[in-house]
Write a structure and sequence with these properties.
Elements: E1 6-8, E2 10-11, E3 24-25, H1 39-48, E4 51-53, E5 63-64, E6 71-72, E7 78-80, E8 84-87, H2 88-97, H3 103-111, H4 120-134
Parallel strand pairs: 1-8, 2-3
Antiparallel strand pairs: 4-7, 5-6, 7-8
Helix pairs in contact: 1-2
The structure holds zinc ion.
Length: about 140
């Protein structure tokens, strides 16, 4: 990833010092009813992108959802498809609280037919191939 991905981030308190720039007020974006008829596919896309980074320098790794009794196990894991970046808890908001996502992101996911490029498998295979090129296995 050469350029900085655009961020999808929601918080009950976007002024919290741990929040990344551009964090949106969660309560303004959640809905009681389904927004996306293809929400399950969007969630699948968000869960299966190649780039996942676990990072807990500014937030606790586990914290409760402000909207339901769920505890986020990978709240601060960062997911990215190269263009956009989101956190583990954002996926929960999409899945369980019908959060409104940036239109540009939803369009992109639909254009890709919900298949991240590269897929995680392609990403791992490319990385492995590169590794073997650098360090050929001993015969
Ligand atoms: Zn929740």
């Amino acid at each position: 990833m050469s350029k900085q991905p655009k961020t999808i981030s929601f918080s009950i308190d976007p002024t919290h010092p741990g929040c990344v720039p551009g964090t949106l007020q969660l309560l303004d974006y959640v809905s009681d009813t389904v927004i996306y008829p293809d929400a399950a596919e969007i969630v699948m896309y968000m869960k299966t992108v190649a780039y996942v980074l676990s990072n807990s320098y500014h937030l606790h790794e586990c914290f409760p959802c402000p909207l339901c009794p769920a505890i986020f196990a990978y709240a601060t894991a960062q997911y990215s498809d190269g263009e956009w970046m989101w956190f583990g808890h954002t996926i929960h908001y999409v899945e369980h609280h019908h959060v409104l996502l940036p239109e540009e992101f939803v369009q992109r996911v639909r254009e890709l037919n919900y298949r991240p490029r590269p897929t995680r498998r392609e990403y791992v295979e490319n990385a492995r191939a590169l590794q073997e090129k650098r360090h050929p296995p001993a015969e």
